[in-house]
Amino acid sequence: MKKIIISLTLAALIFTSCNNPITKSNEMSEQKQIVEKYMDGFRATDHQKILSCLTDDVIWELPGYYLHHGKAAFDKEIENPNAEGHPDIKIIRLVEEGNIVIAEGTVKAKFKDGNKLDAVFCDVFHFTNGKISKLTSYLMFKK
Q1: Do 99 and 128 form a contact (C-beta atoms < 8 A)?
Q2: Is 26 left (phi over 0), alpha (psi -120 to 50) or beta?
Q3: Taking a C-beta distance cutoff of 8 angstroms, is the pair 55, 134 a contact?
Q4: Is residue 86 a contact partner of residue 17, using CB atoms and an 8 Å limit?
Q5: pLDDT tens, 79-130?
Q6: Which among 84, 87, 104, 108 is most buried, taking Cβ atoms within 10 Å?
Q7: Coil, helix or strand for 9?
Q8: What is the enclosing helix (H) or strand (E) of 118?
Q9: Order of strands, sheet of 131-141, starting from the edge strand that comes earlier in the sequence
């Protein structure tokens, strides 16, 4: 009887650890961790943290709005001088395939003139040697 109880207990522990969503979410790849670090940098408006995630020749494109080459150009776009405080960025989903991570999320921010930014985004991160080498950002403003 003790052997059956021990066997059932072990089976339950194995099943729980294999199907526990917390266990699965804690197993984040290095590339996804870099995307999280990058987003944390934006949440805190920490230029150095953001720039440390990028290759020197990084490309950042917001189709129809801008195309920036290199860290210096990227750095100029990190914060809006009209913004008040730090943006509230929430990642809904991270999807990874090969050297690409796609982040889907929301961003909210306040401006000094009283206006607010409320948008959803989809960022496509390309990696080279463990750093972000290209970023394509798609942004849609909520009404």
Answers
A1: yes
A2: alpha
A3: no
A4: no
A5: 888 889 899 999 999 999 999 999 999 999 999 999 999 999 999 999 999 9
A6: 87
A7: helix
A8: strand 116-128
A9: 66-69, 54-62, 131-141, 116-128, 100-111, 83-97
